[in-house]
Specification:
- A two-stranded antiparallel sheet has the order 1-2.
- It is α+β, with helices and mostly antiparallel strands and 72 residues long.
- The chain has 2 helices and 2 strands; from the N terminus they run αββα.
- The model has no long low-confidence stretch (mean pLDDT 84).
- The protein has one domain.
- The two termini are 30 Å apart.
- It is 26% helix and 11% strand.
- The longest helix has 11 residues.
């Protein structure tokens, strides 16, 4: 995030923002209406498709029910 983006989005300087781990799908969030003074770091949910084959399972269910394959 650039200095200009931080100012436009959060109304704060880049150095005033909390640090978020963006290397593992994290970021900053500022929910309107909660009277937060500053944005808060968050960690996005992540799943391993090797351990939980979500897309393959949906494809199997769709095929078993006679439907087409879901879009990837």
């Amino acid at each position: 995030m650039s200095q200009q983006q931080a100012q436009e989005i959060f109304g704060l300087g880049l150095k005033d923002l909390p640090r978020a781990d963006t290397s593992n799908y994290g970021g900053l969030i500022w929910l309107d209406g909660l009277d937060w003074e500053f944005p808060k770091p968050f960690q996005s949910p992540y799943y391993d498709d090797e351990k939980l084959p979500f897309k393959a399972t949906l494809s199997n269910i769709a095929e078993a029910q006679g439907g087409g394959l879901p879009q990837a």
